[in-house]
Amino acid sequence: MAKLSSKSPIKALCKALGVSRSSFYYKPKPKHSSKDLEEKVKESFEDSRKTYGTRRIKADLESQGITISRRRVGQIMQKFTTDLTYVRVKGKWCYACLVLDLYNREIVGWSVGPHKTADLVIEAMRSIPYDLTSEDTLLLGT
């Protein structure tokens, strides 16, 4: 059809073939691999001195011609760390385990108990409202 477009109007060719004009002009966008997207998201985040969130990273990548959803950016960015600390409450030690999402800097899970045990950490991990079995989730423990 592209060869014939120099001899006949596009509108007439599309009508004769029973296709819309938009399908003649349609050019599919290139697909990016998951690894490539991860690198681009990380690069955008690092270039912003680690200040960009999902909206700005999405806008930044779209300005580079990369189409990606905010949800996908969030999945790529989601990494957790834990912090186990203790405080004295009414003369007794109380231990708190917090699970932090490093990119949006919020507490996503927590637990409190009288003893510093592995169960305290497990309980904090279970309180996270995200699916931790996803291959996009990376857990970092400290």
Features:
142 residues; alpha+beta; 4-stranded mixed sheet; IS3 family transposase; Transposase_IS3/IS150/IS904; nucleic acid binding
Structure description:
With 142 residues, the protein is of the alpha+beta class. The chain is built from 6 helices and 4 strands. It starts with 9 loop residues before the first helix and ends with a strand.
The rounded distance between the terminal residues' Cα atoms is 61 Å
Question: How many separate domains make up the residues?
Answer: 2
- Write the element-wise H/E pattern from the N-terminal end onward: HHHHHEEEHE
Count of DSSP helices? 6
Low-pLDDT residue intervals, each spanning 5 or more residues: none
The count of β-strands is 4
Form type: rod-shaped
Assembly state (oligomeric): single chain
Structural category is alpha+beta
Major sheet description: 4 strands, mixed
Tell me the Rg in angstroms.
Answer: 25 Å
Q: Can you give the helix content as a percent range?
A: 25-40%
Strand order of the largest sheet: 3-2-1-4
**Beta-strand percentage range:** 15-25%
Calculate the mean pLDDT score and round it.
84
Pfam families: HTH_21
Domain HTH-like: 37-79
Organism: Streptococcus danieliae
GO molecular function, one term: nucleic acid binding
